[in-house]
Amino acid sequence: MSNARFGATLLCLAAAASSRHADPAAAPGLYARSRVVFFEAPDVPHELQVVFMFPDRARIQLSAVGAGWSARQLEYRNGDDYYFVASNSARSEELQGERRDELRLRLELRRALMLWEPGPEWTAHDDLRTRAVPDAGSLEARVDATGRPLSLRALDAGETELEAYSAIEWEERDGRRWPQAMDYAYRGTRVWREEVLERSLQPNFLDWFFVPADRRELEPQAQTLPQDVRHTDLPPAVVRRFEVDGAATWEALLARGAELVAAARRELAPQGLEVEEPVSFLLSDAGRITHCELRLAGSPPEVPAGWTAVPERPGLTVFGHGPPTDVGEQLDRLRRLAPPATRPGHPYLRVRPGAGPRGEFQIALPLVP
Known about the structure:
Elements: H1 5-8, H2 16-20, E1 29-38, E2 41-53, E3 57-64, E4 72-78, E5 81-85, E6 92-94, H3 97-114, E7 123-125, E8 128-133, E9 137-143, E10 149-156, E11 161-173, E12 176-186, E13 189-200, E14 229-234, E15 237-243, H4 250-268, E16 280-283, E17 289-295, E18 308-310, E19 313-321, H5 327-337, E20 343-344, E21 348-351, E22 360-368
Antiparallel strand pairs: 1-2, 1-13, 2-3, 3-4, 4-5, 5-6, 7-8, 8-9, 9-10, 10-11, 11-12, 12-13, 14-19, 15-17, 15-18, 16-17, 16-21, 19-22, 20-22, 21-22
């Protein structure tokens, strides 16, 4: 299984047959994952993920491959609200004015590129196609004799080029044409070459996915978020799980986790893979430890045999200290704060690095559609 695991497993897809031949005009959304190579830094690969849930939700994530979960830049649209989160930051910024219009145009340009279907909103003149983006600017496309774009660009309200795609390579798949590779330029400067690795017209994401973690609202009955509870995006991971004796002492469980890590490191060393430490423990609904979970460090190009890819998803977390004695009660607290449109995923307890037997741990409740 290739690195596509992070995108493919991120999606909760409808029936596979319907997604293969989905009509773009009627599609509920779009998911695309690309490999990005910056012209000025070709040895530092990046990954771009773009998600639309039509008509008014979108999210763009640009991350450096292997640089750690927090090394990612995020842009969001949720209705009329637009947000930005800088790399290695947990604080979002609501965009206004020109920056808001810039993100609007960026999203409209990306949507036009990925789902090229020029309708009546586009005006044709020779090989030029134009479309207004009200109160923000416009889009332009130069097309070949078959009507396929050779290039697309977004112009701001002053008709200055903001972003552009050129050198577009197309492929036929699932009965339609898709952009497979293209150059991206920002304000006239070529920035990167992009290769689309996967796409889907049938994504299904929680509304929370399109809101920065620090702006996600609580349930109406919860007036304030407890100080020790956090909204967050739980990172994707490649994991392997081992049954353990949940009745064992906390010290014994940590020791067993260390043994499993050591064994996995010996097994994976020939492949150049590393295992994170400390470990995580999967929990039952009642909060009882059932499995020890190992995680690979970084983003390996292939998922090793016996390991499984777990996708990114929104979640709620709570932190504690010392041996966990009230995990069931803590899980109940998290469930009461979750939106009714979600269902809980498999909860887990993750030991904080350097915590030790009396240190800090995190209880996480993933949330899925």
